[in-house]
Specification:
Layout (H helix, E strand, L loop, with lengths): L1 E6 L4 E3 L2 E3 L4 E4 L5 H9 L3 E6 L7 H10 L26
Antiparallel strand pairs: 1-4, 1-5, 2-3
Length: 93
């Protein structure tokens, strides 16, 4: 979990920190539960709790694979081919 804090006024102080008008991210353990409650209750601050990124599941990876172009799909008109040598023979350049 991550905590993102944006101050409505640059330099506004709360929990011994001068908060910026730009969003600033903090680790979950940067604040005690009491400090976090005070920050969330402060009307001059916008406090967002951001969940950790979850690793993709097998189902999500399968869904993503469906949207990728097939390896054996027809080549586009822009595809250029180079001759490939047969076993033991040189390709024509």
């Amino acid at each position: 979990m991550m905590i993102r804090i944006t101050s409505k006024r640059d330099g506004f102080r709360r929990a011994s920190i001068a908060h910026a008008a730009l969003a600033t991210d903090y680790k979950n353990d940067d604040f005690s539960e009491e400090q976090l409650a005070l920050l969330q209750a402060e009307p001059m601050l916008i406090v967002e709790i951001i969940a950790d990124t979850v690793e993709p599941t097998v189902e999500a990876e399968a869904e993503a694979a469906k949207s990728e172009p097939e390896a054996n799909a027809e080549p586009s008109a822009k595809t250029q081919y180079r001759p490939v040598a047969a076993a033991g023979k040189k390709a024509a350049a």
